[in-house]
Design brief:
Shape: globular
Number of strands: 0
Largest sheet: none
Mean pLDDT: 81
CATH topology: Growth Hormone, Chain: A
CATH architecture: Up-down Bundle
Helix content: over 70%
Low-confidence stretches: 400-425
Order of helices and strands: HHHHHHHHHHHHHHHHHH
Number of helices: 18
Structural class: mainly alpha
Strand content: under 5%
Radius of gyration: 20 Å
Number of domains: 1
Distance between the termini: 31 Å
CATH class: Mainly Alpha
Length: 425
Amino acid sequence: MATSETVRLLRRPGYARYFTVVAATRATGTMFIVGGPLLVLQRTHSLTLAGLVVAAETVAGAFTGPLLGAWLDVTASRRRLLVLDRAVTVLALVALLALAGHAPNWMLPVVALVLGATTPLSAGAFSSVLPEIAGDELLAIANTFEATSINTAFIVGPALAGVIAGTAGATAVILVQILACVVLTALIAGDETFELRPEHGGSPPSGILQAVEQGLSSLWRIAPLRWNTLVGVVYVTGWGMLNVGFPAYAVKVGAGAHSSGYMWAAVAVGSMASAFALRRAASRLRPRVLIGFSFLAMAASAAAWPLAGSLAGALALIVLTGALEGPSLVALITVRQRLAPPHLRGQVFSTAGSLDLAAIGAGAAIAGPLQAGLGTDATLLVFGVLLVLAGLLSLATDSDGEVGRVAHRGARAAEPAILHGPHNE
């Protein structure tokens, strides 16, 4: 059955191209979590400044996300907004290369703010169009592939950045990211798939402000979306700490700081494998139970990380932690996809994603001083504590019944829907 669903999904018009472009775009973006901090470290020798740059790059989207997501819902062309995002990314990366180590340090977080300001455009557009490409009957397997896309990005991007940084330096990482971004911009500009819209599911907002109002109201009013967002924020705060924690952990186990890229890849390898291997078993569990116990198990496995005495041992433990994450990541994505009002997906997804970005930035900002003051083990300990808190929050919610009812209603409503867009022209 799973194989049949996969074949059907890959045969959907535009899906294979969509998956390839989106996965490559995400992988290009994740190169920055290795290349950005290493560039700042090499040129300024400040771990705290490196953390601030990562924090600024992620926090920027938290403020722009609600408005940019609303813009996606009302714009006549999403592709133009995606091209705008890519263009801003290229210009900001060029500025970072030119200024790091040659200009006052305060300018680097400012450039990072610009770099991250348009990020919600891509995140919102990618998530919004997926239900239209996959169709309701294949959305579950599509969400598993969506988790795979995210995990693939964290395998390819950081690992590639680590190899390049180890052989040619952090400057080369940013240069490769710029080149890849230019190529992907051209591919996105020519792909009409990103213009697909739901034909049914509510009247589209009349303007950006109305889209913001309706999207925020839905995010708060629909209880499963509310807890999904809260749990996600706590969870990704912990991962944000590892933007600083992983380079320090790599040094602690006797490897270079660039080996943090291999650590991000190890998480993603474990998560991707378990997302597919356990998909059927995980679908039988309530989302809150699956997510809650998954996060608690991850925290228990992360507690063993400081015991590693070599890079190989550390990577093995990190792969285990990633394997415990896979099904819960799919569950988090599925809740948002099923319950977000179709005509407000851009705003809802971008707002939820922007909150996650803020949490990642907060985690990175916290980790810099924490690492400098208390060391690597303390940073990893706080990461585990945040996983525990996210798991307990998920188990504490009583929204399972509403998840089931609303998702079922959404599925029935989507059955007769006919997509309109380039595939039907």
